[in-house]
Amino acid sequence: MSSDPKAQVVALLKAIETGESAPVAVVNPTKYIQHNLAVGEGLAGFGAVLQALPKGSAKVNTVRVFQDSEFVFTHTDYNFFGPKIGFDIFRFEDGKIVEHWDNLQETPAQANPSGRTMLDGPTVAKDLDKTAANKQLVASFVDDILVNGRMDRLAGYYDGDNYHQHNPQIADGLSGLGAALKAMAKAGVTMKYSKVHKVLGEGNFVLVASEGEFAGKPSAFYDLFRVENGKIAEHWDTIETIPPRSEWKNANGKF
Length: 255
Known about the structure:
Residues 140-235 form the SnoaL-like domain. The structure is a single chain. By secondary structure, the chain is an alpha+beta fold. The protein has four helices and ten strands. The model has no long low-confidence stretch (mean pLDDT 95). The protein has two domains: 5-108, Nuclear Transport Factor 2, Chain: A (Roll); 128-241, Nuclear Transport Factor 2, Chain: A (Roll). A hairpin with a 2-residue loop joins strand 4 and strand 5 (96-106). The two termini are 30 Å apart.
């Protein structure tokens, strides 16, 4: 087994598909805090979900993997009780995984209006010396635009209309974003970010985990941004409805 946390996480996720047991050794068996609310606590909860999977149905292809201090975060193409796109965050402590968060969205049947999927685009981090600056830029963007709606500041975060969009409903560019927001407003669909929980980055990739409300339902937003020359150049995301507390399989909360 590799001692590299990124490789360990990729192997652990692939084990969902292969059934291999060795990669699971990276999980601390006495302390594994689960934040996927459909999964029971600890390794036992994780194992129970795997047992419930129809045999041979799981497929796992991790497309992006990054590390920020004790956190490893991934962007994965899943077939896990149906096709889904997911972000996963794992926290390491003393060389073992002790905590897990994720956000899953059903894979759309087709590409977005610009022909992009939820997963394609660059996969390798660069500008590693700019990680802190890029995290600060993205944190400011989320606070200004998504949480507080200061739309007069929007254009300052972009290089004109040079912006690649992977949200399944939205076209490229600020023009595509504007058109989508207008269409949502016309349809009465509201989207509100209320609290940012995590900002994680490696080089020019930054992942933000936030909570809020989408179409009137409590929701978790995971947004991955690629930064180029101090501007936001690309965006991927998943949106997941947070179930009512009565349906939670663990008491740890989504965040």
